Structure formats: structure tokens, C-alpha cells
Amino acid sequence: MKAKEQGIFLAALDELEKEKGIDKEELLGAVETALLAAYKKNYKDAENAYVEINRENGDVKVKAIKKVVEKVENPATEISLENALLHSKRAKIGNEIKVDINAESFKRNAIQNAKQIVIQKVREHEKQNVYNKFKLLEDSLVKALVKKMDEQNNLYIEINGTETIIPSRNLNPNDHFVQGDLVSVYIGKVEEGTKFTKIEFSRNSEKFLEKLFEREVPEIAAGDIEIKSIAREAGSRSKIALYSPDVNLDVKGACMGTNRMRLEAILSELQGEKIDLITWDEDTRNYVSSALAPANVFSSEIVQEDNEIIARVCVDNSQLSLAIGKKGQNSRLASKLCKVKIDIKGLTQEEQDAILSGNEE
């Protein structure tokens, strides 16, 4: 390295320490280790060599530790007393001394090697910082600043100073944002990858909806109300099953809040998606009947065929299309919520009366 380059190199390390928080000594140590590996690769007799960077001026020296002997048999590790005295006036037979190795061509290229090493170290540091930052946010809901949405509807956001992208496949189909918007994002699993930290971002998952309810409904966050199950078709409709061991607690009322303020806060995040609040019941018949809301169920029966649990549900003919829903969505979500197959049959008023009469008998 030339003196000017050495000074610029050290100044750059000082700046990195301030801006990135990377310890300068750690960087210098990494550079010395990497330069030594490069030197040994080119100079096969350098097993005992080491690289030293002057912390004051950035000068690079390649040195070797050699034993002072009367007769040199291995020049790579031994030195005669005569030659040792040229390096140290205190040299004696049996001593080990540090000897400068003439490696000018190597040292001239050292600055370029050092730059690449530092760049790699900075990348590793930034990757580790991203991992550490987002690992603390794993399985949580955070606020993100929108930078832009591209033509493919990928969302560019900033979270705590780190910019990232949520692919369109992980967004709610209704999501349309502009620069400067603040949006909620669910952070799922955070893992260290080979090149980048792998982070699961989502606005269309059931976990996203669950965390929205936890944030807006204190009784859920405190554990007084439990979310038993969620069935979601993002952007269209969701059903959420709620339960509380406190029979005096109105779970639906708590989730809606005064003047529906809590529920409206959730709905505003979902941008048009509808939500059905369902009361969970350990009796599957009652649970399925509630899950088919807004339809009214006349009767339900739970049967098992082979390894499949089936809920056979009867509704008034006028309620049949409502129970099934548009393109089967209502019954499909109810089935997913209750984890049973649902068969729905429509009944005339006469058929209902006949069933009721039979039950009375």
C-alpha cells in the first residue's frame, strides 16, 4: 500500500465504525487473517508467517517467526545467528525472532484485497444486524412505512430503518397503498440464509388477522378471550371463532367495542374484507350452526363416515343460498373453521313441521 492509500483505508474503517457500528479492530483482524491466507496460498514456504497492519499508519508488513540456530536446515522456520543479528542485536542461539519478509509485490496488491475483505465483512455485519433486529420481531405485528408499490403490486416498505419487499402473493388482494402510508405487517419466521436473512412478511395470512385482533382487543391480548380458530379468504371474507371461560363476558361485544370502534379499526386494515364473529362451542352441532352465520340453521347432526367427521345441516329453503354462500364460500369457511365436512340440505316448511312433530312424539 502507498502511504496515501493506507491513510484513506484507515479513515474508511473509522467511518464504518461510526456509521455501521462495526469494531475497527475486528475489521483489521479480519483483513490480517485474510491477507495471510492469500499470502500462504502464493508462498508455500510461509507456514510460520503472519501479516501485521500498523494501527497508526496502515502499513502492511509480512513477518515470520524464526528460531536462531547454528546451522540452518529449514530456511522457512530457522535463521542463522549472523543473519538474526541483522534483525535484532539481542539475538541468541535458541531464541525466536520476528523477521520481515520481502513481499513487496504482495503488499502492493494488499489494498485491493483489503477493500474486498472489508466489503464482505460489512455485508456479513449488515446481514447479522438484519437477522438480530427481525428475530426480536418474529411472530408479531409491526407498523411499516410504504415506499412504493410496483407494477406487479409488490410492496416496498421500511421497518425500523430497514427497507424490504413484501411480494404481492403475501398481500391482501385489496391492498393498494401509496408512498407515505403506514400499514400493519405480520412478521412470521425469521431464519439466517446463506446470502440473506429469510423473513416471512404477510398481510393475507390468518396469523395477520389474529394479531390484528390481539392489538385492537385488550381482552384477547390479556387472555380473557381466546381465538379458537380462524378461516380466511383474504380480501373477501373471514370467520373467527371466539371463546371465554367467563360466561358473563360478551366476547362478540368486546371484539366489536363501543360503537363498533375496535372492529372498524380491524376492518380498515383489511380494506373491504368482511368478518364474521363466531362463538366457539364444544358441542360441534352448535359450533357448526353458529359458523354458518348469517344463515339460520334449523337442525344439525354430527356423524362419522370412515375417518371423516360430517355435519349434516338442515336449513329452510329460503336460507339455503345464504348458508352455502356465493360460490360456496360461506359453507367452505365454516367447514374450515370447525374442521368438519358440512353437508347442507334445504327443507320446506312442511318438512320442518313434520320433523318437529316427530320430535314431539
TrEMBL record:
Gene: nusA
Family stated for the protein in its record: Belongs to the NusA family.
Domain S1 motif, residue spans: 139-204
Source organism per UniProt: Sneathia vaginalis
Domain of life: Bacteria
Function statement: Participates in both transcription termination and antitermination.
GO cellular component, one term: cytosol
Protein name per Swiss-Prot or TrEMBL: Transcription termination/antitermination protein NusA
Keyword Transcription regulation: yes
Lineage: Bacteria, Fusobacteriati, Fusobacteriota, Fusobacteriia, Fusobacteriales
